[in-house]
Every structure is written in structure tokens, then in C-alpha cells.
Amino acid sequence: MRPLILALAFLVVPLALAQSSIERWGLFEAALDGPADGNPFTDVTLTATFTQAETKHDVTGFYDGSGTYRVRFMPEVSGEWRYVTHSNRHELDGKSGTFTAVAPSAANHGSVRVAHTFHFAYADGTPFRQIGTTCYAWIHQGDALEEATLKTLASSPFNKLRMCVFPKNYEWNKNDPVYYPFAGTPPTTWDFTRFNPEFFHHLEKRLAQLRDLGIEADLILFHPYDKGRWGFDRMDAASDDRYLRYVVARLAAFRNVWWSLANEFDFMKEKTESDWDRFFQIVQASDPYAHLRSIHNGSKIYNHTQPWVTHASIQNGAAVVDPERAVLYRDAYRKPIVFDEVKYEGNIPSRWGQLSAEELVFRFWNGLIAGTYVGHGETFLHPADDVLWWSKGGVFQGQSPARLAFLRQVMEDSPATGIDMIDKWQDERTAGKAGEYYLIYFGKDTPTNWPFALYKEGLKDGLVFQVEILDTWNMTVTAVPGTFVTKKRDAYVFEDAAKKTVALPGRPYLALRIRHVAEGTH
Amino acid sequence: MRPLILALAFLVVPLALAQSSIERWGLFEAALDGPADGNPFTDVTLTATFTQAETKHDVTGFYDGSGTYRVRFMPEVSGEWRYVTHSNRHELDGKSGTFTAVAPSAANHGSVRVAHTFHFAYADGTPFRQIGTTCYAWIHQGDALEEATLKTLASSPFNKLRMCVFPKNYEWNKNDPVYYPFAGTPPTTWDFTRFNPEFFHHLEKRLAQLRDLGIEADLILFHPYDKGRWGFDRMDAASDDRYLRYVVARLAAFRNVWWSLANEFDFMKEKTESDWDRFFQIVQASDPYAHLRSIHNGSKIYNHTQPWVTHASIQNGAAVVDPERAVLYRDAYRKPIVFDEVKYEGNIPSRWGQLSAEELVFRFWNGLIAGTYVGHGETFLHPADDVLWWSKGGVFQGQSPARLAFLRQVMEDSPATGIDMIDKWQDERTAGKAGEYYLIYFGKDTPTNWPFALYKEGLKDGLVFQVEILDTWNMTVTAVPGTFVTKKRDAYVFEDAAKKTVALPGRPYLALRIRHVAEGTH
After folding, report:
1. Which of A249, A502, B313, B456 has its CA 20 to 30 A from that of A412?
2. Which residues of B touch A492 (CB under 8 A)?
């Protein structure tokens, strides 16, 4: 764990020296002294070229205040790296060094990437089974609440967190933030050409803490919940672009960063769709590591077929009420689908924040069956003040996280290539990997019996399967005694050779897990 | 009607002279004598420039056999048109003439275009309410059956027909066609550089007959149901491209043509997706009138966000089992959605051809509520031989067409801007135009009572509405006595000021039609 701690230390106590050793996918940082006069954010250019054998990356550095400049780098390949800086200021130009990228620690699998078209995996190939949650403005709540949020996350099933860079001005979120991203005076007197290093030190500390908890940070770069209070939702185009480049220069070396261009992008009436296209292209061009990129919608969905979108981030609660709805987005976008907002478990008056825990867990399971991924959020009114998890963090009041931990365990124990529907557009219950592994989810139905029957793909007579009954709400796994042996029934279906059935307890939220265990004797 | 008859006459008895008068959106044709030696299909170039004031169109002519060349043109603007030909052969070069495009006859509204993003209208602005059907190989059945098909269509609700250019070799479709599109000897000895004018004369006669019945021809340019029997599904790229250009040169002047690049394009394993992209671009570039263009899928949907796609033509029966499924495609593609295959009313063993009439009509209504369009097909086993409507035409055995006529009447009587969901992703029953017109479809539910309640968009207190009960299966419209007056109930809904409800007969397939009739006195 030493390198991780080292990396974190740099964020808290910036050093003027660079590390000599960093783990693969760790955060290397070189600090340089340079000019503090004029406007270093705009006057000074700083890049660095990192090389190892035939691999070369050009990365952009940034001004961190007090005459200090930094260059960060995430080595994706182990071994010795060399770097040299380039600048329009001689103090920063031609500085060079070396460091070694060593084997990653056990919990470090690299950045998350798209895998098998519709799924995700870490850079080292380990599948990433997304169970996301949402605390939009958690980094703007002060240390006490922020530390409480981290503690809650540490014992939760969540491995991805949606969070905003900018503070939030919205119902239940009227408090001022501790830090502002730009130099100036709140509420609206900002110099958008000068960033506030303190703000970013704080953000980076939180990103590193999430990383060390194994949580991906789905970082929301713009959002409409400002409404002119600070004006970060209505900067001019040059300021938008400068902000994006600065954020990417600072944060791209964090392996757990995902770029979410916006929350409810279409509700930002000051921007056009071509602005969003441009923002994507800036982020794509600026990020040497090609972190995941998407954008979250209000009522109008962005065109996720655009080449700069890596996966579709979708708000639509209705889509995961039924796997046959959710799967349609896969066909349209041909990319991983993450339902980042499906309404929240809670009890607020707004219709988007009053799901039961059962309903939210049901939506996660529907998403899984569709071969897609779902996000959690919680909007219970707070007994004392406006601390709703969905925006500020804190502690859970709801009952879904425990069930999502059970779901995650099921996911971790499923095929590495991901869960896909077995007979898309025909059977809305069954997903898995044909011939090997099946999940059959009964949702709100309360069956007492299931005649063994599987769609023909990947099957032949005589394959032996074992069946388990999952109670997705009560979090139990019950093995069904004996085995089932396939035999062709008709043009579409194989049944058990002895027409065996599975007795079920007649409750809602049941699922079957069916695994191929052997060739049969038939 | 005179100009229509004239146009048709040209197709049957080609003349060497051009018309002096043609109705707007009619088919102008100039015939020219030229060389018959060599290979006129490939050796001779022929184009013509049609001009009227500042409007100019360059169109491509074609060789029609026996030394005759033709240039066709559909005038989209009334008035006097001039044309002049260009050719690499002097006999065909520099020929000029004039004609007058006169006012269209009553049934001629021009070509169908996209309107209001998700809907269709004729060129003159008349809404086109798509009620499609499918007779894939009807033009390959011989005159007796083909005339019977036309007779059936003439008294049907269908205003669009999906039909293949090439003959079909598939279950229930093993008969040889009467005509082949290329010169050569069946089954597989073809000269793909020489077309068979007889084949095209026949096709054009049928297109003109459909036009005169008010039916759009959704012309399927390629399909996989050849399987090498004739080889039209596996021509080389040059032959594919030549074929497309010839078809477009001959047929683009028919105002009722839509280009469907393929049926189940992804089942044509000899083609790649970039082939389809190229085909689209050829058709787009060759067609002076920009007729509608789409492509129908098997299990993989084409990327309908491509700029050359005008609307999404989709096979997915599951998508119209529920309006909330169907509407998702609108969000993804931002174009009109036509579910051209949702399984068929019939009784064949295949699971795609055994819907009840009730189920097929239900799917049409779901499509309507989603703001999309649906296609019909019928696959009843034929008492004597293999005449299934879906492929060969003939007569209907099913019960859905009468109900689709009722549906079409409802559509014709709805707002010109089209039916859209009122509260997308929240309310799967209600569509229309906010504040003016609502359809609430109850599907398979059997309600006995409906408390008047409408989503807030477009409403305020005191608006007066009238309600009718539609029985979509029994084809009745029953006015509810009295009126309903809006009053705000909560953050989302307006109810009747006196909390009036509508009594319903407790049967499936009911709908309500609700129209704003006046400002109230509140």
C-alpha cells in the first residue's frame, strides 16, 4: 500500500520533488518552481513528454498556485519511465527525470474500460460490475459530513459515485460550499481565468479517498443546479473550455476518474448541443488515458452513438421497470448502458424521489437482466436538516443498499464477459451466457413452480445444469437438489429430460441461477 | 384524373414523345431513340437538366431496351419546366423540350416527408398517418394473384406497402417469379451489367397502381431471402451499385416510392455495415427528390442516427407490447419510428407469425400512443396452397384490417402535428397534444371507471373538455354526456373541478378521446 499513501501525501503536502517509484496506474507527480507573476494560469504553457521504449505520452501540466507547477502522469505500463518538460518559460522548460512504475498493489486494477461491447473491465482485465450511487454535492459539505460519507461508502456495495465538481443550488441544497473553483468573491464576482488551488486540493483529496476505497468517481463537469447563483452554469465558451482543460490536466492521472460531461445537460439552456460536442472533444483530446466519457440527460437524450461517447449514461426510471425496455438502448447505442438515474429510494414529495426500496432493487435487477447497469440514490427527508444522501451524503436511511450488496455478489460471481439477454425481444426474464450460466428473474410475479426450460442457443441434448433459488429481497441462495438434463422440446426450447420442475416459494423478487456443470450421459 | 391515366399509359405503351402537361408531383417522361449496339446500360451516359426559374434538377436517364432511352422527372413545383439532355452519344445529347406542371388532382398530395421530427406529411402538408402492411413478393406472383392483391388493398386501410424488388426464396415462397431483373438464364446465369426492361415495366405498372390507390411503396432494394438460389443477395459491389443507380434512375420520379435499403439487412452475411452505408449514400446522391430512406433489421439494428436515414424502420415485436418501450427509440434516433415488423397475425408454427388479431391491433395502438407507427402482416396458412398475405398477397383471412381501418380513422381525426406522449417515461397510457387533444389507451386492462385526470402540461384551471369512449376492438365511439372542467389537483395533475369520473364498460382495448372544446367560466 505504500505507493498509494505516497500518492495521497502529495496531494495534501505538495512536494517540490518527484517520486522515484510509483505503482502501475498510480499517480506520478513532478512539482516545479516557476513564475508567480502575471496570470500563470493563462500566461504559462507547460507540457511534458513521458516515454518508455516505444510508448510516448504528451501530458499537460498545470499551475497550482504559490509559484508551483505540477505535471501528473498515470503509467499504464510497468518499467522505467523518462520525462522531459516543455514550457514557454525557461524555469519550467527542459526539466527531466525518471521513475519506475512497479507492480500494482492488490486492489489496484487500473482504470475502468469498456469490455465486450456492453460491459466494463479494469485495465488488468478484472470485470467491473457497476453498482453506482449518487451524492452530487458531497464535496461541498465540510469535512465532518464528508468524512461521514466516506465512512458510509466504505461499508457499502457501491463502486461508483456520481459527484459534481461545481457546488449545487437546488432544493435541499442551498448551503454555501466551503471552496469555490475560481478566484474571486462569492456569489458572482469571479475571475474565470484564475483557478482556486485550494478547491482542487480538496477535490483531489476526496478523489484519492474514493480511489482507495475502490470507488470510481463519475465526475460531473457541468450541471444546471446553479441557476445563476454563482454563474458556473453560464460561463462564456472560452471559460468553459479553459475550465475543462484545467480539470483534465489536474485529474486525468487519477485512475478512478470517469468524465460525465453533465447532469441533465439539456436543462442547461445556455448551452447548445454543439457546445456539448465540443466539450466532449476537448476532454477526449486532453486526456492521455481515455477515461470513460458520457453525459447524463434530463428529458432529451444525447446522441450516444457519437464516437467520443464511451457508454450511455441515462436518466430514465421507466426504462428499468422492464428489461425489454432497458435492452432497447443497447441496440440503439451499441455501447454499455448505465442507468445513472432511475428515481431514488426516498420519501420526498417529488415523484422522482419516492421509490420504495423494493422498487429500486427491482429496477437494478431488471437492468442486470437487460445486460445494463443501474445507479442508486436516496432521498429520505432528514430528521434534523436537509442532509439527503442523493446530494450531500451522510448515512443511509434506506433498505436498498444491503440488497444491492447481495446483487453485487451475484454479479461478481457471474461470467467475466458480462450478463446479456439470452433471447432478446422474446424472453424478458432470462439473461446470462448461453449454454453456461443463466439468471431468470421473476420480478413482481410470485411463482410457485418453474418448469425447467431454456432457449436453444448454446444448448444440445444431455447437458447437465444445477439450479439455485435466489430471494433477491431476503438475500438468500437455496440450492435445488439434484440436477437437470437438457432435452430438445421444440424449435425454440430445451426442457429437462424428465420434465422436472423447480418448486418456488411464491414470493415476489425471486430469481433462479442456473449453471452448466457437466456433459450428461445422454 | 386525366394526367394520372396518361402517366400510367406511358408505362405500359412507351411513347417516343414527351407529355406537354403533367400534374405537379406527376411523372413526366421523355423517350429518346438511341444506340442499341454494345451494352447500352453501361456504354451510354444520359442525364437531363430540368429548370424552372431558379429551380434546377439534374436527373439521370436510363436505357429501356430496343434502342429506347428515357428520362423521368417529378416536378415538385408547378409551372413551365424546360429540360435539356446530356449524353456521350450525339443521338441523345442536347435534346430539349418543355412541359407544364399543372395543379395536382385531388388525391395527389406529393411525396411523403418527415414532419414535426417524429411524424410524416405529404409534400402539400397533408399529414400522412402510416398504416402499413407487408406483401414482400407480391409482384412475383403473376397477374391473377397480383390483381387480386390490388383489389384487396383498394378496400383496405393500408396506405403503405412493404415490397421487395427481387424475388423471394423462403418458406411458403418457393415459386419462380415471372420476371427477372437481369438479362440471363435462371437460376444463376446472369449478366448483371444488363437489366431486363420487362421486369421493370412490370414493377412500374404495379407501383403506379399502388400510387393510384393512394398507397406508398416501401421498396425493399435488397433482402436475404435468396440464399444463393438466384444470387441477387451476393452480387459483387460494382453490380450492387449499378443496380441501385438504375433502380433510382427509373423509379425516383414515382411520388409514392420510399427506399428501404433492405429487409433484415444484418442477415445478409455477404454484406458489411459499410456496404450499407455506401448503398444509402448512393441512393441519397442519385435521388433528386429525397424520398424517404431507411433499412429494416433482423436482430441487429442499423445506426439510424446516420444522416442519410430519414426514419427508423424497425423489426421488434416486443417494442410495441408497451408504449414505454416503443418511445425509447424516438429518444435515441430523433426521427420518425416505423415498426415495420412486429410479428404477424396468423397461425404458422414460427413464433413470429402467430399473433391473434387482438394482439396485433393492440400493438398498433401501443405504437400510436408512443408517437410511432406500426406495420401489419398476415401469415395464415392457406387452405389450398402457400398464398400467405405477408409474402404473396391475395385476400385477408384475419380480423385486424377492419380494426386498423377504425384506428386510421382515429388517426386522421387527430392533430395535424401528430400524436406524442404527454408525460413520457411517466405515463404510458396517454398521448396526444397537450392542452388540446388526448388519447388514453387502456390496452388489456378492463377498467370500469376513469377519474378525469390529465398531466399539467398545457393546462390551467377552467378549461373545458369533452370525452368519448372508443372501443378499439368493437369499433365504436361513444360520447360521454356533459363536459369536464380542469382544476389543479397537485404538482403534476389537473382533475375535473367537480371530481367527475368516466364510467367504462370493463372490457379490454378501450380508449378515451378527450378534446378541448372551450375556455371555462372559472
Report:
1. A502
2. 351
A366-370, B11-15, B481-485, B515-519, range with the lowest pLDDT: B11-15
The predicted complex's ipTM stands at: 0.93
Same domain, B142 and B207: yes
CATH code where residue B55 lies: 2.60.40.10
Q: Which residues of A touch B308 (CB under 8 A)?
A: none
Is residue A442 included in any domain, yes or no? yes
Give which of A207, A140, A200, A212 is closest to A170, Cα–Cα: A140
Which grid coordinates belong to A365?
Answer: 435487477
d(CA A388, CA B268): 53
Nearest chain B alpha carbon to A326:
B325
Domain harbouring A301, CATH code: 3.20.20.80
The band of B383, judged by pLDDT with boundaries at 50, 70 and 90, is confident
Q: In terms of domains, do A236 and A374 share one?
A: yes
Number of domains in chain A: 3
Distances (CA, A) of A18 to A21, A36, A214: 9, 21, 25
Alpha-carbon gap: A330 to the closest alpha carbon of chain B (Å)? 10
**CB < 8 Å to A299, chain B:** 424-425
Q: Cα separation of A160 and A336, whole Å?
A: 15
Asked if residue A417 belongs to a domain, the reply is no
Letter for the amino acid at B21? S
Are B94 and B117 within one domain? no
Q: What is the pLDDT of residue B519?
A: 72
- Say what the pLDDT of residue B11 is: 42
Residue B517 has pLDDT above 70, yes or no: yes
The Cα of B318 is separated from the nearest Cα of chain A by a number of Å equal to 5
Whether residue B252 is found in the same domain as residue B400: yes
Whether residues B203 and B346 share a domain: the answer is yes
Residue B467 lies in a domain: yes
Chain A CB contacts of B492 under 8 Å are 351
Q: Are B71 and B81 in contact (CB under 8 A)?
A: no
Q: Is A322's CB within 8 Å of B322's CB?
A: yes
Q: What is the pLDDT of residue A436?
A: 98
* Residue B109, all three cell numbers: 398530395
- Which residue is closest to B428 within chain A, CA to CA? A318
pLDDT in tens, A306-347: 999 999 999 999 999 999 999 999 999 999 999 999 999 999
- Of B319, B351, B426, nearest to A328 by CB-CB distance is B319
Question: What is the distance between the alpha carbons of residues A127 and A504, in angstroms, rounded to a whole number?
Answer: 31
Residue A425 with chain B: CB contacts under 8 Å: 299, 316-319
* Type of residue found at A311: H
Q: Is the dihedral of CA A22, A132, A140, A316 positive or negative?
A: positive
Distances (CA, A) of B151 to A273, A410, B213, B355, B396: 49, 59, 10, 25, 11
pLDDT at B243 over 90: yes
Q: Do A324 and B322 touch (CB under 8 A)?
A: yes
Say if B107 falls within a structural domain: no
The string of pLDDT tens digits covering residues A360-411 is: 999 999 999 999 999 999 999 988 889 999 999 999 999 999 999 999 999 9
pTM (2 d.p.): 0.94
Q: Which of B47, B82, B102 is the last residue of a domain?
A: B102
Tell me: do B81 and B161 sit in the same domain: no
C-alpha–C-alpha distance, residues B179 and B238, integer Å? 22
Place of cell 386525366: B2
Using 50, 70 and 90 to split pLDDT, how confident is the model at A520? low
Tens-digit pLDDT profile for residues B180-238: 999 999 999 999 999 999 999 999 999 999 999 999 999 999 999 999 999 999 999 99
Q: Is the pLDDT of residue A46 over 50?
A: yes
Pairing relationship of beta strands B160-164 and B131-134 according to DSSP bridges: parallel
Structural domain that includes position A55? 2-102
Residues A125 and A94 in one domain: no
Same domain? For B162 and B260 the reply is yes
